[in-house]
Amino acid sequence: MSQAVEPKGQIKADSTAEGSSSQFALPSHLLKSKLRPWVIIGTFILFALIIIAPTPDGLSRVGQNAIAIFVLCLIFWVSNAIPLMITSMLAIILLPLLNVMEAKAAYALFGNQAVFFILGAFILASAVMQSGLSLRIALRLLQYFQATRQRLLFGLLVLPAGLSMVMSEHAVAAMMFPVVLEMCVVLKFEPGNRSALTMMLAMTWGCIIGGIGTFLGGARAVLAVGILEETTGISIGFLEWALAAIPIVILMLGVAYLLLLFISRHEPKTFSGARELLQQKLTNLGKRTRRETYVGLLMIITILAWATVGHYFGLANIALAAVVVAFIFKLLSWKQVEKDVNWGIILMYGGAIALGFTLDQSGAASWLTQLILGDGVMTGIFLVFILAVIGTVLTEGISNSAVVALMMPIAIALAAQNGVDVRTATLALAIPSGLAFMLPISTPATAIAVSSKYVTARNTMSTGIILNSVAIGLFVLAALLYWPSIGFTV
């Protein structure tokens, strides 16, 4: 979701499906620089060199061609020389052209249920936002938590986290930002004020941390599960993912809250003016509408269905059924959906799933794994640590969905090579890929906080290092002590 702060403190949001770092990544400047043509030309030259090179021992010609496509997509995804979805379209073109996969099979992967689950979830999120229900919930809870600085920070942290478990974390950031920004203005905070800093950081961290809790916070989780299922036939259910991730979410929120209190330890304990501001905003919203009530009821039923019968009926089927119900009862208009949903994300995920499937089936992923890491055997815990570090580091610079698309085939190959549950490897890579705290370029939630002028890149770097380090440690502890108890062995 691309945002820019306007002079009067309003936020201008261009809705996108996956709040990825792609639109805020530093390399995206290549799009407007003189380097862009050279990056594209150099990438295609490297692609051609890989294609015509002698096939290495242990790798098939099909696998070599798959690696060539992988390298091309890797450079374009990281550099953003061309948009993510166009890169995926290029992959779909090249797979049959180089005889890596039949065209019919490649295009069929656009019908993967993970893609349609993402589409359904984003349309439902549009209903929640457009009905005004999400803003009303946010204001009500913030009003409850605003009595003291500690309670307000707790509310600004926990509320976005909760909302990010049922809708895109970046849609939550776009919704919450104007409220928090206006609070800072009413309270007459100047840039550099630690209270304003912690309020913005609380909102940002809540969005990011809550987004890893379920499939709904960001499409990276569904993409990872989609690649896993297409590659191995093994899947992870909605409830299974939530059981594995939510305890980490709770612990991360606790650490984040303590860090916020430490940063603001010398600030006033109360904020005069916050109560009046929130009450005025609620008054302006008016009474809860019938549309809000029905949208809330539909979301509750849908989430319960995902958690209880999703394995039997399919997450995508339930999501699309809920979308149909929303239109039958006129809770949504198609015109609004067209504005809110980034349709390019469908192309991006379809191409990423096809590429991941090809790397595995051709043996290219296993060959790359041996080339990079050798034949040494890893313990399960060390593998979890390596994947968590890779996911955490890469997501600071490139789209979290691109991290999953690039690394999932290798993670699956590593797990198979070392006798580790492939579902555990999926969790160890996909969950950390959503925790980008350090750089403003890494996620829209952080970018819009920095755009407020109350938060600087130095703030996000210094605090992000702490949160990322804690997160990696929690993943290792979860894999060692908790995940085996719910069936995810190492």
UniProtKB/TrEMBL annotation:
Signal peptide: none annotated. One of its GO terms (biological process) is carboxylic acid transmembrane transport. It is found in: Membrane. One of its GO terms (cellular component) is plasma membrane. GO terms for molecular function: organic anion transmembrane transporter activity. Pfam families: Na_sulph_symp (PF00939). It is a multi-pass membrane protein. It comes from the Bacteria. The chain crosses the membrane at residues 35-54, 66-94, 114-139, 151-167, 201-221, 241-263, 293-309, 315-334, 341-359, 371-394, 401-420, 426-450, 462-483. Keywords: Membrane, Transmembrane, Transmembrane helix. This is Anion transporter. It comes from Candidatus Kerfeldbacteria bacterium CG15_BIG_FIL_POST_REV_8_21_14_020_45_12.
